Amino acid sequence: MLISTNVHPPAMFAHHNHRIIRGRFPDTGAVKFVTGLGIRKFVSLGIGFPGTPERTLGKSNKIELIHFPISPTESQNDQRLSDIIDYILVKNSDSKIYIYDDDGFSCTGIVCGILRRIEGWDVASTIEECTRFFPGGQLSPDAVRTVCNFNISRWR
Amino acid sequence: MSMPKGHKISGGYATVAKEYQGHDYRTISEIMTKDGHKMNHATARNKFLQVMEKFAESICANNYAKANAKAVARNPQFQAGICEMLQGIDAGR
Helix (H, G, I), strand (E, B), or coil: what is residue B29? Predict the structure, then answer.
């Protein structure tokens, strides 16, 4: 049997809180690392339709893969973001979840920023954390607007 | 006959990565010695890798693939991932 040495965290890997991990689209070694942390629910935020690799990973590792495509460069549809937050905070309130997109910071940053505001972080700290993940520290104005203006009262 | 070149770990050491504000093994051993746990840099490295191996064993046992925990623990990328997790927990996130 082939013994693998390829178990590593995904690119842009970060610990959001005890239940939520964020990062970039995981390759095979990264899927092993993430599932090794006891995570079986993957939330894909990439704008593209989930392709064969994601489906294959989902089947082979007993992963539940949910695809919520959002665009990092456009103003977000509030209903779509609400569905994502509902999935993470309400429908899977006891599950560990891995949130990712193609680059690990744009769409993921928006959703994690909103989650931080729901956790009670002020806007300045939230934006500061989001900015840390953006290359060159440049957070897109659309992302800032979405994170700041999204109505979080439902989950507080 | 020339001296053996030794094994070079690709990717360097995670402990000295600037983004994690880490220390090299010599500094770690000096800090530990000052705190009453006498050790040299080789012991500091061995202890560090022993702990990483424990994480690797647990992570490898938790997923469905067979993996060499010892080799996984030596991967700086893996070490950086564990560091990120521990810093998150330490920060109370």
Answer: helix
Q: Are A103 and A12 in contact (CB under 8 A)?
A: yes
Place of tokens 């010892």: B70
Task: Report the residue from A13, A15, A35 with minimal CB separation from B62.
Answer: A35
**Where in chain A are the domains?**
14-109
Is the domain A14-109 a CATH 3.90.190.10 member? yes
Nearest chain B CA: its distance from A29 CA (Å): 10
Is the complex ipTM more than 0.90?
Answer: no
Q: pLDDT 10s per residue in chain A (156 long)? A: 445 568 889 999 999 998 999 999 888 888 889 988 989 899 988 776 555 456 556 566 678 888 888 877 666 678 889 999 999 999 998 999 999 988 888 889 999 999 999 999 999 999 998 888 887 777 788 888 888 888 899 887
pTM: 0.83
Q: Which of B63, B82, B85, B87 has the most A C-beta neighbours within 10 Å, making it the best mutation to test the interface with A?
A: B63
Look up residue B81 and give its amino acid.
G
Contact indicator for A116, A150 with CB cutoff of 8 Å: no
Verify whether the Cβ–Cβ distance A35 to B63 is below 8 Å: yes
CB contact under 8 A, B63 and A15: no
